[in-house]
Design a protein that fits this description.
Blueprint (H helix, E strand, L loop, with lengths): L4 H42 L7 E6 L4 E7 L3 H6 L1 E3 L11 E6 L17 E5 L3 E13 L12 E9 L9 E13 L1
Parallel strand pairs: 2-3, 4-7
Antiparallel strand pairs: 1-2, 1-5, 3-4, 5-6, 6-8, 7-8
């Protein structure tokens, strides 16, 4: 059986069309999700008083400002960063408060953070933290959530940042509280 040149070209065009349509669908889906996140984020940040159960986290040097919702549900993670409910309250005098966010939305710029950077948690009172270190950990490593009595903040996102799919590791930012503002 011999394939003609025209049938080969037709098959190739079909594959090219399929790949193109699939790519457009994937980009559209990603843009829709990011757009939904951005609209929610701007609505919360623009409000003069943060919505109930929402605070804001700011890292001035890298230009990150993100809404932080209370409770680590899938729905909340789709809208912003989340405060892990089993950790210390944000701004506590002691304890380790943890905030998690997706690497491709809420924490997409987190890889730019460095030791010494300031993190501000805005709420009724602003709490200022200083980054002590960043590190990479396995997804099942819970040591970053440990308590030592100090007022700390841990930020968590998936790693590597440009990994496609469910990332195997976590990028952690460990900070200590250095002050508060009224």
């Amino acid at each position: 059986m011999t394939l003609s040149l025209s049938s080969l070209l037709c098959g190739r065009r079909w594959i090219e069309s399929f790949v193109l349509v699939s790519g457009v669908f994937c980009l559209g889906s990603a843009a829709l999700n990011l757009g939904r996140y951005e609209v929610f984020e701007h609505r919360v940040i623009a409000a003069s008083v943060p919505a109930a159960r929402v605070t804001r986290l700011e890292i001035p040097r890298i230009g990150l400002l993100v809404a932080v919702l209370e409770g680590d549900t899938k729905e909340n993670m789709a809208l912003g960063a989340v405060h892990l409910t089993d950790t210390a309250a944000l701004g506590s005098e002691s304890g380790n408060a943890a905030i998690a966010g997706h690497r491709d939305s809420a924490f997409r710029r987190l890889g730019e953070i460095r030791s010494g950077d300031q993190i501000v948690v805005h709420g009724e009172m602003d709490f200022v933290y200083q980054v002590m270190r960043t590190r990479i950990a396995n997804a099942d490593d819970t040591a970053a959530l440990s308590e030592d009595g100090r007022a700390r903040l841990t930020l968590i996102t998936c790693y590597p940042f440009r990994y496609v799919g469910s990332a195997p590791r976590r990028f952690l930012v460990e900070a200590e509280r250095v002050g508060r503002r009224f």
